[in-house]
Amino acid sequence: WADAQGMHLVSDEIYGAGVFEPGVEHVGLGKVAAERGRRLGNRAHVVYALSKDFASSGLRVGTLYSENQPLLVAMNKLNDFCQISAHTQHALSSILSDEKWVVRHTCSSIP
């Protein structure tokens, strides 16, 4: 609908791994687009942060996925002032590269 109206759509997927019912999975905007044989395009954007799924709100680590080049250029300019520390990057790289742990951790939210 937003695309047909020429509107931008921001999908906040901060609770993406926080599914609390067995047999139910989070379906993100990227998956919805792919199932329809489409890309996100210039007006659909996905934001995600580690604060909810990984109980790390104090780290202020998040990401933006967009195919909109002018938006990405603008966000890149902000990146110089908003980088996370090298210590945080190193710790998160170590944690998130352990795929078995990530799956166990995110699945442990299911009762």
UniProtKB/TrEMBL annotation:
InterPro entries: Aminotransferase_I/II_large, Ethylene_sulfur-biosynth, PyrdxlP-dep_Trfase, PyrdxlP-dep_Trfase_major. GO terms for biological process: amino acid metabolic process. Keywords: Pyridoxal phosphate. Residues 3-100 form the Aminotransferase class I/classII large domain. GO terms for molecular function: pyridoxal phosphate binding; transaminase activity. This is Aminotransferase class I/classII large domain-containing protein. It comes from Lotharella oceanica.
